[in-house]
Specification:
Helix content is 38%, strand content 11%. It contains 13 helices and eleven strands. The strands form three sheets. The protein has a six-stranded parallel sheet. A three-stranded parallel sheet has the order 9-10-11, covered by helices on one side. Strands 2-3 form a two-stranded antiparallel ribbon. The longest helix has 20 residues. It starts with 14 loop residues before the first strand and ends with a helix.
Amino acid sequence: MCIKEPFWSPAGASGFLLDWDGVIAETKLDFSGIREKYYGGRRAMLLEEAFTLEPEAREAMFKELAELEMAGAEGAVPVPGAFELIEWLNKNNVPYCILSRNLTEVIRRGAEVIGLDLPPRTWGRDNMEWVKPDPRALLAAAGAIGADPRRCVYVGDFLYDLQGARRAGMRAVLVQRDEPRWSCWADVVYPLLTGLVEALHSPEPVVPWEYREIYAKKGERWLHNAASFIFSVPGEPSPTTDCWLARAASLGVGGFYVDPEKIFTPDDWKKNPSFDTSAMGLKWSEVVSGFLAPRYPLARVVTECEAPLNAPKNSLDIMRFIERKKI
């Protein structure tokens, strides 16, 4: 099935980042004892908040954590659908990796137990500079497998996976969970991993996370038509340019024409300091693309267009403008 943007399917992703525990192997890890002993029962982020412990306690906590993970690896069983997922990725030459908060040796041992050949790119907390949900971990992993981060999918079973994907501007797929509180973070939820495998073999259009609200208000026809529009981005940045871009993109506008010769100057930045200071001196097209890509990855920035639309400069008028285009 051919799925036309702005609708989406995980089957069209350029790369897959996979969590380990709960997605590929089930080890039934229970961290409640460690949280009770070292954090007073509080649901602390064990890795990120270890610095709050005294050195001796911190060392002991990491030792117990490693022992708990290894015990889980020894009793690991494959998640139903895990081998089928890997088979689909290999068959379709989709680059993938494993990115986990577990120790690498734990992942390797778990893979031995379930009889899985790990991909060349497998990361745990001890062989990568960052750990999820830090978006830098996901972006680095995508780069290492040669995939465009904006076209990647992170498949996980926990909130940290979804947070990392959202922060990195990737697609977020939740599996093996039926947790309504987390659905606002995910592009799509499959209560069972086998559901994702079925969706890969028989793709169906999914409304991307960033268009969920406009789709609920305006429906499928609006999204398809808005995606065909190319708006001309004002050549001179103003104090509201970022709001204008975000508003137009949130309504599903698919393309943005930018003068290919325009450079984002220090004076431009002073007019709108919402853009990062690192943007100064870059082409305006690069600045606009950098702004939109993590927020609206399907929005295209173009530098050639015969007749881009001159939309209202007031972002509040954009919806009415689109409506008058007979959507």
